Model the fold of this input.
Amino acid sequence: MRYLLYFLRRHYFYFLFLLLEVISLVLVFNYNEFQNSALSRFSGNLSGAVLSLSSDIYEYFSLRRTNKILAEDNANLKSDLREAFYKVDTHSFYRKDTFYKLEYNYISAKVISNSTNKRNNFLMLNKGSLHGIENHMGVIIGNRIVGQVVSVSRYFSWVMSVLNKNSKISAKFSKNNQLVNIEWTGGNYRIGEVREIPKHVVIVKGDTIISSGNSDIYPEGLIIGTIEDFTIASDENFNYATLRFSTDFNSLSYVEVVIDRMHKEKEALKASFKPSN
Amino acid sequence: MGSVYLKNIIRFFFLVFFQVLILNNIRFGGYINPYFYIYFILLLPFDTPRLFLMLASFILGLTIDLFVNTPGLNAAACVFMAFSRPFVIRSISTGTAFQPGSSPSLNNQGIKWFAYYSVILVLLHHFLFFYLEVFRLSEFFHTFARVIFSSIFTLLLIWISEYLFYKREK
Done:
């Protein structure tokens, strides 16, 4: 026992090193559990307070761009208003009734921290559970995708950017609805990778890739990007292509969080369908 | 003695905020992002107890992690760097005793010594940091390039501050 204590005291440096490294690595690799922990919520509020201060300053540098995006968005929305339509048939009337049920709500939030230069990028938004944001909600800007909420504290939320190792987006070709997956392989933040393109799909440079709506995170039809280049793999079952993101991840200032009002219903349906054993 | 503590505590907060508020917003071509905050570990006095050296580095790493939502990543790299520091110092110093309470610096230890010291430790930190972050062999060379470019930038900042802020102690 005395020798053991002596041994520990003599080499405490190595043990301490191992201990601290193990703690760090456990944190690194249990990342998903960490996101849901109380510690994460606490640190979210703490770092959020500091980061929102700095974003208040940085915000001024992107005002012009933000304005432009807002104006474009407004124009899009205005063209959907009833006033924008000329009534052709004066005999029949359309009544809004139970044919339509609201599926998506949007909450506008400010980006207070963002990165594009890491392998795994995150954004922090200045809204949290208090404003109705929950885990797994999609984040978009206009009709383009940004990421997915992974951790929520009371006033802030962390968003996993599309520019992340763990991000995989279900998408499709807008021309023929063929399903593909979108990933980011690091490096240039404007370029992503389209994976699992079926062999029979004819790829043309400039093809538009949109969100499929299959993942319950993003609504269908958001523009993800256009095909930049492609390779025909002769020995595999799928072709690959690179895509130019339509989102400029480096200049995000205001984004919208998508609230899927039918999310619970979809989840319940999925859960009920699991084979019982 | 008290001033050494105070100096390091102030340096700790300054480097954390500098890293989080300014350097993390710098994005050059997807490759370069300097991790200047590790300057804190480089500058701890020679006679810092190793226990304190490691714990301080661990806390430093975790603090940075809080702001970029990468739990444990910076902490792991910092602890490794702090662990290596005494070995690096021992292997590059040739029998000269250090003044109690003095910190490694360009002017006191000389250009060659400080170059070895900073390059080795910064590379150790960056290698562990980037490879742990990516954790994929398929991106090996791409990550290697990121390590090198970021190290160059970090070292550049460290050397500039060495020249700017430290006067020769006689």
